[in-house]
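Cross-posted from the bioinformatics board.
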Amino acid sequence: QVQLVQSGAEVKKPGASVKVSCKASGYTFTTYGMHWVRQAPGQRLEWMGWINAGNGNTRYSQKFQGRVTITRDTSASTAYMELSSLRSEDTAVYYCARAPRADNSYYYMDVWGKGTTVTVSS
Amino acid sequence: DIVMTQSPDSLAVSLGERATINCKSSQSVLYSSNNKNYLAWYQQKPGQPPKLLTYWASTRESGVPDRFSGSGSGTDFTLTISSLQAEDVAVYYCQQYYSTSSFGQGTKVEIK
């Protein structure tokens, strides 16, 4: 079955970076896109960016531009999201979520990972 | 950026009764070239990721019970649960994917 398995919880200090992985299985990785969405405690879902898993093209939310990098490793069917210059407000659950097509980011999210909790604290 | 606003923030409905959630976008999410509304609805239960219910405003995702239906066009959308079941207790989010995706603040549905 289609599955997205994310890496485990992280605790980081302010100013550090975090890299979250999302391993896909049950489908052809390169024919879909992958979104990254976060949810801070008590807050709404927030879109961070997207990658075309086929050609590696990316698109980022202006809010995170310059701090977020989304990459993929097609040989491992894995997408990655790295967020730098962490601050306490970045404490959140980070989700990867599949886009039903790879060609552009203007799609909904049909399969979600279980989420990775990132805590930023001194 | 497109701002999504849901109403109400929470509602309590009796089992078997209808639940209606509204979602309004700050600008139209209807793409004229393909006549599609770039609007999806999700259900999120505590400790779980969101689950896709409907997309293109009214297309139900495979496996989603037919008591869930989406409607609307342009800037005004509705998710209707025709006969509320106990397992429908959750927070529901609308999302636009017309222009750098954004979500509503969520609507919490409880049993009265």
